[in-house]
Amino acid sequence: MEWGFLSAHELTAALRSGEVTSVELTDDAISRIERDDPAINAICVPDFDRARAAARRADEALACGEDRPLLGLPVTVKESYNVTGLPTTWGMPRFADYQPTEDAVVVSRLKAAGAVILGKTNVPYMLQDWQSFNELYGTTNNPWDLGRTPGGSSGGSAAALAAGFGALSVGSDLAGSLRNPAHFCGVYAHKPTFGLVATRGMVPPPAPALPVEGDLGVCGPMARTARDLTLLLDVMAGPDPLTLGVAYDLNLPPARHERLSDFRVLVLDEHPLVATGSAVRDGVNRVAAALADAGARVERHSLLLPDLAEAATLYALLMFSNTGARIPPRGYEQLRTLAGGLSAEDTSLSAARVRGMVLSHRDFIEADSRRELHRQGWRQFFAEFDAVVCPITSTPAFPHDHTPDRGDRQILIDGVEQPYSDQSVWAGLATMAGLPATAIPAGRSPEGLPVGVQLIGPMFEDRTTLRLAELLEQTIGGFERPQVERPQ
């Protein structure tokens, strides 16, 4: 039996029946990593000795009849999560020797659920790219085409899943960092509702791991099947035990529907601020056709939909206000001068990013109030619809581009150059309002590259898009195994 590409549910059943041991699964995963990862470079911090020890403990627990959700399953963790005994660098060479003294909340929950952590997966510098490369750990390649990016910032996790390096992985998402790599590598990912998963310990070094939820960003699961996303989310989700967890328990509502025919879906394949490539449009339409064929209500327009251009501009403003807080004083003053020189009529995404980096507290509060109006608009929208089907980004995985200034990078969309940084607008649609979004495979491009779409749903109804993803997987298919090019 080749275990590396079975789902977490299949592996769990095999472990419980005694068909395989956790030690055997772990050794199989390690062998696969040692054979194939030199070409991919997804696992930047291996932890094989401790993984084997954890697998032995898991086998002992299984023999005693224990039944924890992830007991004995080999998994990986994004490098940005604190794991005791391993470095946390966020791709910054100056922190190569930094080791946290406490696990992130998500990591502690993985361990409590019985997971066997194989190691940590590669990221871009400071998690700030849709590629995964840094001076410390090098470049992660897409298993479908080693000359292309696996996405970012959870690119190492997506590449690891596509290559069979563990059954599950955990990542994070601010600008599509779960959904973009899933789309590029042909796997599944779920951006949870904002605040659903405690983020303590997913923090850049050497900052302390405080129980604070930063704006916009979330931690979330990645897998090779939709059903496995739910399994992992149920382990990860819940309030921080140091804050809201003192008083509140998690009780997510069930999915709105159990059959495709009952879903009410709005399909979007065009955005006013960025082009959609034909391969991605085909993926969206493939999902739309499957929904319509199953009897679902499928619409292409709705007056209830919040304004897409305003949402994208507001998202850019809020997201880059996070970035501006970390800019050194001299650079900050230069940006203030630049922002002050912008015309009031300039409502472009690039202008919003500059303004966001020097946003005053007063202006942030005003922007946050506008965000609440969008959230209210989404509540009204989801009274009539159950989900939105739309792109994650405009193209399949693109060739590696390490041009230092991202402002100088361009993306080719059906042969036409478009600004690199503008590709966040589709991801930002869910992020700005804190909505859950599930990334699913939706076929292949003419070049054979994976194409994904996202299913956006109502706040804290994460099980609705996850169930829709599972039903679509049964209808249009899901993960396909790439043929990894191995070193000669």
From TrEMBL:
<dbReference type="Pfam" id="PF01425">
    <property type="entry name" value="Amidase"/>
</dbReference>
<feature type="domain" description="Amidase">
    <location>
        <begin position="24"/>
        <end position="466"/>
    </location>
</feature>
<dbReference type="GO" id="GO:0012505">
    <property type="term" value="C:endomembrane system"/>
</dbReference>
<dbReference type="InterPro" id="IPR023631">
    <property type="entry name" value="Amidase_dom"/>
</dbReference>
<protein>
    <submittedName>
        <fullName>Amidase</fullName>
    </submittedName>
</protein>
<dbReference type="InterPro" id="IPR052739">
    <property type="entry name" value="FAAH2"/>
</dbReference>
<dbReference type="InterPro" id="IPR036928">
    <property type="entry name" value="AS_sf"/>
</dbReference>
<dbReference type="InterPro" id="IPR020556">
    <property type="entry name" value="Amidase_CS"/>
</dbReference>
